[in-house]
Inverse folding.
């Protein structure tokens, strides 16, 4: 017999978190009623802007003739770098990224000027009529060329632990080689856009699609020569971001605001897809040179890797991206003696920037490639070699639970998670079935791979791990919330609604989120690094808790009992044996002059990082996952198909399982695109030729597996995250490593898994055919 009282039974059974709830804007999305920046009603007198772009990768500007631009239909004004009232810079860390080029261009597509016209089409047509004379300079276009020229945007970094050289000398076996992993276009559905509206007394309102309103506020204020309090930036929602609108929305916001300031009229700058892809940076491509020592079983004894990324012409966020790559080279594996080096190559291409995973995927794929080599060299199943190298448990006293950068892994569940997936996906039986199929199929070959994930959650830069929120409870019991996170479709607003509803014990329908706005919550961090729900959920919870405590004190004073005994659940306040509807108590509290709004704040505890030694405790916790993928490859054409994918992801105590599963599915397909179909290609003149959907191939519905099984791993975050949940934005993007290595497995079956296929990413049909030819040649040579 349960001895809990009726109120306790009711409150214990009720929860607004941990339950599947539709995205707060789902209905609006389906009906086409969700307002994005371009949907906002235009203010009378609004003008439209377009950018004039460089046609050379590296050159001095000898002259620019803009007469044809100014004479074009509908043109109101044309502005160059010399017209910017304040600072001509939009670099997020180092001030090396001009809004408009001034005397020097450093990539094809770099903005030279802004043309403002009565219509969008007129502005865009006019921008093509500029006549620019250049004095061309030598251009560096690849990370390998940047390394050869010692051309870097930042000093190279190094993380070393133990004595790698001595460990190599003791190792019975070594494997060494090179790997190239390409970049990736964010390809958000809504392109870059900013709408700047002058306000009274030098004020400027900027409505833009951005993951970082506070950064846009700073950049616009500096460009206008004003203070931050003159500028308000607002973002209701984005049609996707994926990192591409963290720092690189700044150029568009600044160009629109400068034009609006100089014109004295509202200006909208909306990028066409071609211009967007030509101007903006992508995921960094990486080139690796690696050497790893290992024993007879496949246990790694020493590791050395030298990686260089294509940073582009300016630093942007390349330093933090490289740092995260260094800190994720270990993935789920204990590495005792390492020498990890990373450099950010300066190239005459777009400045690469944040992209979902932020260097983590680029770091982790290198060690996975190495383990794949080791397993094949030893004739062992790659899964067995991976499991042999896993981090140990915190309490097993082996010392195999400390990362190369010194953080202790206290929450390791990769053993249990992989074992569960191995069983549910029937890995061993399917491995036998794949081998049997390949023995009887000379042209079509199947491949199978299981790959794990360990991903650190927090911003690399410690001070960014903070957030604020405002919660208002109105007299009718409805609740309005504003926080510093931005909604890009990932469901952060939905999760914050659930957190606030749970804290106040009300139905989620009572809670509404307003647009992110720098005049409401100040000094916010970007919605990035998978911290959106973690940080802003905690801040909103803090604000709601303060209100709940005031209401509890009022309820106890009015109805008796102790404030700490008052319970809020199911739209009801349980106080001293009475049940008072939430809205009724709020109305009574207002009449009694109880404060019904509050601010909230959260800063992630325990984080520290020394960039000089590259050691510390940079992550609040780790998220884990694993995936099994089975593919079939046509060895005559290079075509392939993902037949089945099984993914198991550790979301802790999920705030919203429906949203989290959706995030895992989306990340898997996006990561698969990065590793297989999405190829960026620059011609000899430095122009990005894959700058439109016609030439750049993201995965389509037909690329998704017919059999796609995604589940959440039952777990509880050991850290005091929001309701013990875990982040789900970036880590699942590493799960489709399994697709890439399944393709490699299929190719290696041609030679009985005796040859390591030299397969780079993306594994396009052409790349697969090249690897097939190499394996066949190696097999013939050894026959």
């Amino acid at each position: 017999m349960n001895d809990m009282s009726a109120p306790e039974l009711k409150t214990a059974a009720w929860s607004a978190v941990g339950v599947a709830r539709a995205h707060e804007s789902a209905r609006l999305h389906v009906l086409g009623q969700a307002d994005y920046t371009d949907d906002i009603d235009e203010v009378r007198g609004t003008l439209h802007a377009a950018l004039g772009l460089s046609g050379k990768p590296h050159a001095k500007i000898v002259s620019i003739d803009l007469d044809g631009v100014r004479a074009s239909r509908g043109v109101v004004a044309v502005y160059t770098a010399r017209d910017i009232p304040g600072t001509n810079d939009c670099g997020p860390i180092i001030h090396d990224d001009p809004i408009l080029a001034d005397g020097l261009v450093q990539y094809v597509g770099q903005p030279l000027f802004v043309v403002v016209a009565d219509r969008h089409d007129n502005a865009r047509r006019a921008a093509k009529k500029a006549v620019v004379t250049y004095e061309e300079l030598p251009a560096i276009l690849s990370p390998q060329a940047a390394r050869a020229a010692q051309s870097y945007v930042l000093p190279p970094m190094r993380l070393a632990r133990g004595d790698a050289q001595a460990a190599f000398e003791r190792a019975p076996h070594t494997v060494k080689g090179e790997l190239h992993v390409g970049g990736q276009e964010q390809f958000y559905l809504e392109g870059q856009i900013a709408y700047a509206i002058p306000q009274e007394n030098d004020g400027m309102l900027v409505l833009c699609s951005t993951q970082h309103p506070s950064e846009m506020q700073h950049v616009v204020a500096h460009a206008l020569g004003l203070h931050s309090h003159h500028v308000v930036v607002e973002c209701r929602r984005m049609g996707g971001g994926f990192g591409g609108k963290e720092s690189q929305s700044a150029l568009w916001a600044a160009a629109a605001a400068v034009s609006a300031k100089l014109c004295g009229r509202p200006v909208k700058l909306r990028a066409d897809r071609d211009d967007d892809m030509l101007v903006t940076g992508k995921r960094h491509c990486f080139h690796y040179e690696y050497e790893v020592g290992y024993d007879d079983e496949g246990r790694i004894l020493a590791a050395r890797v030298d990686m260089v990324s294509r940073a582009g012409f300016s630093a942007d966020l390349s330093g933090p991206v490289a740092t995260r790559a260094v800190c994720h080279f270990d993935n789920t594996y204990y590495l005792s003696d390492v020498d990890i080096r990373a450099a950010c190559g300066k190239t005459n291409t777009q400045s690469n920037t944040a992209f979902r995973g932020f260097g983590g995927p680029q770091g982790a794929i290198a060690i996975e490639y190495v383990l794949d080599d080791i397993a094949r060299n030893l004739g062992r199943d790659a899964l067995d070699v991976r499991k042999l190298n896993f981090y140990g448990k915190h309490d097993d006293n082996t010392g195999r639970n400390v990362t190369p950068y010194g953080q202790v892994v206290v929450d390791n569940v990769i053993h249990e998670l992989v074992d569960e997936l191995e069983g549910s996906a029937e890995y061993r039986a399917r491995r036998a079935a794949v081998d049997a199929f390949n023995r009887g199929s000379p042209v079509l070959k199947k491949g199978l791979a299981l790959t794990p994930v360990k991903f650190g959650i927090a911003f690399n830069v410690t001070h960014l791990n903070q957030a604020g929120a405002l919660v208002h409870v109105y007299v009718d019991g409805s609740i309005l919330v504003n926080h510093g996170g931005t909604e890009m479709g990932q469901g952060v607003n939905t999760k914050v609604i659930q957190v606030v509803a749970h804290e106040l014990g009300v139905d989620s329908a009572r809670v509404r989120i307003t647009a992110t706005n720098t005049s409401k919550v100040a000094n916010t961090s970007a919605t990035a690094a998978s911290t959106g729900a973690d940080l802003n959920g905690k801040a909103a919870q803090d604000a709601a808790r303060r209100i709940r405590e005031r209401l509890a004190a009022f309820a106890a004073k009015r109805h008796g009992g102790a404030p700490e005994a008052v319970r809020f659940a199911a739209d009801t306040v349980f106080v001293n044996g009475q049940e008072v509807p939430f809205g009724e108590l709020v109305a009574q509290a207002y009449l009694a002059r109880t404060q019904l709004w509050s601010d909230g704040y959260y800063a992630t505890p325990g984080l520290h990082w020394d960039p000089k030694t590259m050691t510390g405790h940079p992550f609040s916790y780790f998220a884990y996952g694993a995936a099994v993928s089975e593919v079939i490859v046509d060895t005559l054409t290079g075509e392939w198909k993902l037949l089945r994918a099984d993914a198991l992801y550790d979301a802790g105590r999920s705030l919203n399982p429906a949203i989290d599963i959706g995030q895992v599915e989306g990340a898997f397909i996006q990561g698969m695109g990065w590793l297989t179909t999405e190829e960026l290609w620059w011609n000899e003149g430095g122009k990005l030729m894959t700058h439109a959907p016609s030439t750049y191939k993201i995965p389509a519905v037909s690329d998704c597996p017919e059999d796609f099984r995604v589940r959440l791993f039952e777990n509880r975050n050991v850290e005091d995250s929001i309701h013990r949940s875990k982040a789900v934005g970036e880590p699942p993007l590493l799960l489709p490593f399994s697709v890439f290595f399944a393709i490699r497995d299929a190719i290696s079956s041609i030679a009985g898994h005796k040859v390591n296929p030299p397969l780079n990413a993306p594994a396009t049909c052409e790349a697969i055919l090249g690897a097939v030819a190499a394996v066949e040649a190696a097999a013939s040579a050894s026959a």
